Amino acid sequence: MQTLSSPSAPQVASTAVAARPTLAALWELAGLWLLIVLAGIALITSLLLDVRAQEEAQIERSRLSLTLVELQEAIEGDLGLGFDLPDHRGIQPRLERALASDTQLYAIDVVDRVGIALFSTDRGAIGEALQPRAARAAEAGARQDRIWSAALPGEAIMGLPLHNAFGEVVGHISATYATQPVRFRLAVWQPDGQTLTLGAMAVLVLAIAGLLGWLATLWALQPQSARLRIECQRSQTRALGRSAQVRQRMDECLVRLDESERSE
Known about the structure:
Layout: H1 2-5, H2 8-80, H3 91-100, E1 105-112, E2 117-120, H4 132-144, E3 148-152, E4 155-163, E5 169-178, H5 181-188, H6 193-263
Antiparallel strand pairs: 1-2, 1-5, 3-4, 4-5
Helix pairs in contact: 2-5, 2-6
């Protein structure tokens, strides 16, 4: 009896052992999908934050260029009336008022054609020349008659050429401002409406991607799961058949035992 019933126990054990790799494989593949999804979400979030940081920087430059254009028009209007740029005393207070109205600016300067500061909100910079990189950018801006900019260590400078009544470039109006990408990136995380919208979008994308990853995992493991279910059912059927055979043989043995007792 034990010899006949013993095959069913290893068979059940082998079925249980065979079922374990299925769950392990499922979790392994699900973890891989989750890792891919999280990496994708991190990439999407980083791209969205970078886009917003670039938009904020562009808005900052546009606002700064507007300030420079207003100063340029005011100074060129005075030059058109016959004022000489180096001797125009009304430029200094005008620069200081513009600096006081914008806390993002470090300094506003008016330089001559060769780049020597004639007026500056930083009084110590009067008489000093532009840095070489800024001087090259100003020269290119004067030749092309356009706004120019140059990146300096820890800051940036933007300027516009100044024209006299005959349209000749006689100098430049420039503004120095901070360039701190960390400050802009930290500002992105402030809890305003746009940041909350980006967070909600990231969570929604994460949920959808996670659901798709789980469904893809189930679909990928479906053939293996079906095959193991069929093998399990076959093993159970064989075990039931062997149990029935054992039960039948036991019944036969009991019948023979009864017959032998009656015959005695």
